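In response to reviewer comment 3 from the previous cycle, which asked for concrete evidence that the modeling workflow produces usable outputs, we include below a single protein chain processed end to end. The sequence was submitted unchanged, and the resulting structure tokens are shown without manual editing.
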Amino acid sequence: MALEGGCRRIGHAITLSMDTELMHRVATSNVTIECCLSSNRKRIGNSLSRHPITTMLDAGCRCTLNTDNRFLGDTTSTREAVVFIREAKGSWEQLLGL
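The workflow returned the following structure tokens.
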């Protein structure tokens, strides 16, 4: 629905990888997904290795790393990058492409 409405950015999208057809549509439509790893802990559990950011990147989705709400979430862009590598199992190459 958001794609048909012409959206350019989607926040979080942590369930996107459950629908490979939709994920492909997002990847080919150049929509950017705003990923906020630390704030997603509550939704997917403490194990960020289950976060779909690397799956979305591998599928060709355009993603960004964000802090969501830096003050309430107690994080920074640097911490989010560390979380991406250490916990979400992202690669340095993927991080540099974000």
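The chain has a mean pLDDT of 88. We consider this sufficient to address the reviewer's concern, and the full set will be provided in the supplementary archive.
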